[in-house]
Amino acid sequence: MPNDHHNAPQTGLSYYGLSLLSYLRESHPDLADDADFIRTRAQAAAEAYSCIIRSGGSRIEAAEEADTVLYRGLHFSLYGTLANVIRSEFADIIPEEDAREAALILLPQAREVARSYELADDFAATPQYALLYTELTGTVQILLDNGIQ
């Protein structure tokens, strides 16, 4: 049976909308079915591009600004970090091919852990990242110990 969750917001999307949808499916799958979010971001990116071009900027400058608008606040992925924790720390329990699905299942618990952190675009480059990684590792271990798989 096809997964309608992944196909629903795709209809009629612009270049920016499709680019964002593809990125969300990889890094923020919990947002991939938010058609309003995707449409709003895509429109803002297209407007940013047009604005730079109208003001005499180059296509490269316009594309860079559009990408900045499109991906603002999405560079750090809690889901991606959780998937990395599962792949790196629990490879003996959760097979590699199941790591992304497991991360999606455990994402609500990971969000609870991450609430005390400021998850900005550059978060992975901060000292706090190691603390979050350690907390996520402990959380996954507790969940596995309690039979949640």
Automatic annotation (TrEMBL):
<protein>
    <recommendedName>
        <fullName>DUF1896 domain-containing protein</fullName>
    </recommendedName>
</protein>
<dbReference type="InterPro" id="IPR015082">
    <property type="entry name" value="DUF1896"/>
</dbReference>
<dbReference type="Pfam" id="PF08989">
    <property type="entry name" value="DUF1896"/>
</dbReference>
<dbReference type="InterPro" id="IPR036297">
    <property type="entry name" value="PG0816-like_sf"/>
</dbReference>
